[in-house]
Amino acid sequence: MPIRTTAASSHSPERTELCADELLLLPDYLLLADGPVREHAVVVANGRFLDIGPADELVARYPLLTPLALPGKLLMPGFVDAHHHLTQSFGKALAFGEPSEIYRRIWVPLENCLDDNLLYLSTKLAALEALRGGFTTVCDAGTRSDSDVSTIAAATQEVGVRCVLGMICNDLGGHIDARERGAIVARAQAHLAHWDGHALVHPSLAISVPEAGSDGMLQTVAALCAEADAVFQTHANEHLASVERSIVGRKMRPIEHLHHAGALGPQTLIAHATLVTPSELNLLRDTGAAVSYNPVASSWKGNAVAPAMQMAALGIRFGLGTDGTRSDAFRLLDAAETAQRLAFGFATGDSSCGAGKLWVDHALRGGADAVRLGALTGEISIGKAADFLLVDLDVPEMRPSWELEWELVRLANRSQIDAVFVEGRLRLWHGWPVDWDARAFLREVDEAAAAVVARAPIQRVHAASFSGASAARVQVNAPAVAAS
């Protein structure tokens, strides 16, 4: 049966048409798990993909729905950011050009100065950036602010991004006794229970780095997450300094330490894992633990690149993460493939480094699996959440088109994202929210960020390369701040 053409379907739909409760969408391309297809359609209802199939069949099957043709558009799953720091968005270029372990000198001092309002503003800014960059799900590693993480949840819900909400459970680095450890566990249990079953917020527990948790706390928090089908997050094997501290202090490397403490398992998500030995890779594979491969973080402030190609060959689960660097999913795809070529492909003569499909898969389904949301999001599939993008392919950069997944990795960019949907609801249209004033919000952010950066005891190794009031806000060579 030919596709029925109506006034609504003979041209690209208007924003108002895409705000309907039920949608029958007919894009030029639909990106499914097996690859892109043409002449297919989707039905969106109640926040889910109700039906998927050949366009003429769906048009006939749903005569009460007006088909909305999307000429020149790709309908694809929203990207999953497997590792983010939502409450660090006020820092940005303060960390550029700085040596590794910037969390000690920049992020901890900055986050410790965030009250409830600043935490809300910082999170909302990061969430907006994420949606603009094509991420419909972000996995937040937890904040060091004393404010309640419900503030983070409120901000992400207002923006409309799906959030894996981490709560930090560190019990070392200060004078913490058994009673305080018990209180940490109680808060962790309450956090998991409070957000269980929420539509957009998915609870997670975190210990910043293995050295920040006692063996007992590492084991307990990981077990709580396993029981709740939640993610246990930690940073491991990212920098030489942290690996050496673990070897000196524990006689084990960080991932070995996690395994010794009983904290490695399918619920575990390791951020970075750049400096890993063959035996540690085997531990990740054998325990089913997942990794967030963060190539931009490696480029900007890391000591190494995670061997993601080897992880793929070993069957180690991994997604792609920004680490809060820049929320641009297409540039992340490009960085993921490029980093593997530079770090490993050149030396071995591997000119494809997994090809485009590998990186697209790990940015979508692989990321959803890594954050334990694979049953909910990450692909266009009947019954899964309607978290998706409409991407404009009718641009010079994408023409002529020969292999779409390679082209998404190397040629596509954020400016091509026309619309972002989460739970079947239009959240962004041409980069801006449809139901709140983001430009007024940005003016509020400028003022708030200037004030908090001015008073935070940030320590930069390098002086700012510019002069004036903005540069004077940042203390250079201030006293070092202890990690916690």
Automatic annotation (TrEMBL):
One of its GO terms (molecular function) is hydrolase activity, acting on carbon-nitrogen (but not peptide) bonds. Keywords: Hydrolase, Metal-binding, Zinc. It holds the Pfam family Amidohydro_1. SUPFAM superfamilies: Composite domain of metallo-dependent hydrolases (SSF51338), Metallo-dependent hydrolases (SSF51556). Residues 41-63 form the Aminodeoxyfutalosine deaminase/Imidazolonepropionase-like composite domain. Gene3D superfamilies: Metal-dependent hydrolases (3.20.20.140), Urease, subunit C, domain 1 (2.30.40.10). It comes from the Bacteria. InterPro entries: Amidohydro-rel, Metal-dep_hydrolase_composite, Metal_Hydrolase, MQNX/HUTI_composite_N, MTA/SAH_deaminase. Residues 75-426 form the Amidohydrolase-related domain. Belongs to the metallo-dependent hydrolases superfamily. ATZ/TRZ family. PANTHER family: AMIDOHYDROLASE-RELATED DOMAIN-CONTAINING PROTEIN, AMINOHYDROLASE SSNA-RELATED. This is Amidohydrolase. It comes from Paraburkholderia pallida.
